[in-house]
Design brief:
Four Helix Bundle (Hemerythrin (Met), subunit A), single chain, mainly alpha, 6 helices
């Protein structure tokens, strides 16, 4: 009889000890989005002339953005909206469009990395603008606006 209680207790502990996939994805997604925003601010300051252009820092920031974008779609499993998440539920109803917008951002960041490697200021500004447009496109459609 005590073995049954032990097994039931162990099973209960294991069930409650399992991390929520949606919650883990939300937390990872939040961290990556914060990282993307931070790198974008660093680069925007340089592109807009508010800080001195540092080619090494710019390239590092572009690479960091590219790293943050890897597997981004995996961080949007069904059920990972609501609560503190800024993700709109319509993401999963419009997955093909959401995926296309994600790919546009990945491509824009790759273009930014190429421009940063070339060091051409005009190309960097254009590529940075494309990254901003791709991010805005997705956020306007699929992110809940916060104050």
């Amino acid at each position: 009889m005590s073995i049954k209680f032990f097994a039931a207790g162990l099973a209960t502990c294991l069930i409650f000890a399992q991390p929520s996939v949606a919650n883990d994805a939300f937390e990872e997604r939040e961290e990556r989005m914060k990282s993307l925003g931070s790198e974008a601010k660093t680069m925007a300051s340089m592109v807009k002339g508010r800080s001195e252009f540092d080619a090494d820092q710019f390239s590092f920031s572009a690479e960091s953005m590219a790293d943050a974008m890897v597997g981004m779609l995996d961080l949007f499993p069904p059920g990972s909206h609501g609560g503190d998440s800024a993700a709109k539920a319509k993401i999963w109803d419009n997955w093909a469009d959401f995926s296309a917008k994600n790919q546009a951002a990945v491509d824009a960041v790759a273009g930014l990395m190429d421009a940063a490697d070339e060091g051409n200021e005009k190309a960097i500004k254009k590529a940075f603008g494309m990254v901003g447009k791709s991010c805005s496109s997705c956020h306007k459609a699929y992110r809940i606006k916060r104050d």
